[in-house]
Amino acid sequence: MLRKTLAATRTMNATKSDVTEPTLCEERWKNAKADENARPIVAFDETGVFAACCRHGTALSLTDMKQSGELAKYGLATVDKLGDTFGSRLLIGYDIGCTFNKTVAQSPLVGPLAEKLGISFCVGSFHGYGHNRLCQLSYHPLYVEGAGLENFEGCERLFSSTNATAITTRHASAFHRRQHITQHLIGWNAVKRCNLGSVLKSKYISALQVIENAPKRLQELDPYGTEEMWRSYVQAERDYYQALKHPHPESAFSIMYIKRLRVLHEKEKAFREVYSVEYAYMIPEMIEKFRNRPDIQGTNQASNYQNTIAKNTRQLESKRTAATEQLLAIQTEVSQLELEHNINPRWSPGGPEWIAAEKLEAHSDFHAALDNLEHTTIQRLMELEKANVSGTGYKLQIFIAKALKRREKALRNALQTYNTLACKVNPPRPTLTFKELIECAYIAHFDFLRQSQHGIQAAEWARPRNLQCSREWQGLERAREEIA
Q1: Domain ranges of the chain
Q2: Taking the complete model, does pTM exceed 0.85, yes or no?
């Protein structure tokens, strides 16, 4: 019953991003929500709660979700409450923080308040790896100035405790349900306040360890590197993915056009074949000869023969009519496309335009296979997380284990398809093993594979050593913010 996360933390250096631009992973998370929570179970009025907690784990607010899934209004109400209570310069982590950032900016009620108070958003460290690389470079805590070493997954720990209240509140009245949850959170907050000193000490020690060890690793990776250089690598990577965010419209048309031409060629072939068919027993001379045979006269075979001829004639005429209509339809569609795009003469197989379009089509198929591989891999990681959540029942664990077994087979099939198409594109893309596939999911390497055109590997920021250096340096910066 208790679902989803929203963690908030005070920060002195919250980033300000362009909230008017649509996020690349918005559609992905909409699809995930439609699959999981499109029609919530209506057995209870309260389908869950929308929670917020601070970076120390203390619960700040809980909002009942009434007869609905997780709607934007619950998040907007929570942001309004946090802004009124804690004031300016808040950094709020949410598993769809990239999309929610735009939602808040477009809200006529909460948007002006968030802009006035300088409230900004990011995604949780774990959920962030389910987003595309460009989104991570703007919203993952590792790349957000002022985030420190906070992972913004505090509500996951909160929910692992409050899930136990579902057993006693499922059949309680509305008053006693809220009372029980409130008493549970009072105890939770009391424990967190008692442990506050040890938590701060632990965070301080962790930051000191990062500050001590990160420069050594950076020195080993790149003895001549500087902070300005590593900062430029991050910005260069962000600029690269930003430039490749939208596909060229001419490429999409070329692919679509040659696909329609292939259909046209198939329909022309089918049309010629169906009109070249001529049954021997349908020729009038053959029919008369058959009727005059001595063994046929005076029997019902002549009538059966006539019925067979009529049946076959109707079938053949139906096939010819369908072939004619299909050919006319595709001819009209292709002619309209050629008229709109000023194509004359028509492209033919083996021509330069056709070859260029086939190359683009191969890249498109490769990207589709990579999208499927990425989606399947992220799903598997999410299910692995659910399998070991505290309080998961035995039957649910068995169900998840079976789902993981099926998912692994689908994952291997998707990997095989990707490797096959990766070898067909020009230039060929790197193939992956099953172990490398899991690593790609954790280091957000999918977008690099998707956009790795010829020569991009030669870019300074794209070299593995420099990528690792930029991540190490970002971690060092966050550790310094944690102490400051």
Answers
A1: 6-194, 249-340, 352-453
A2: no
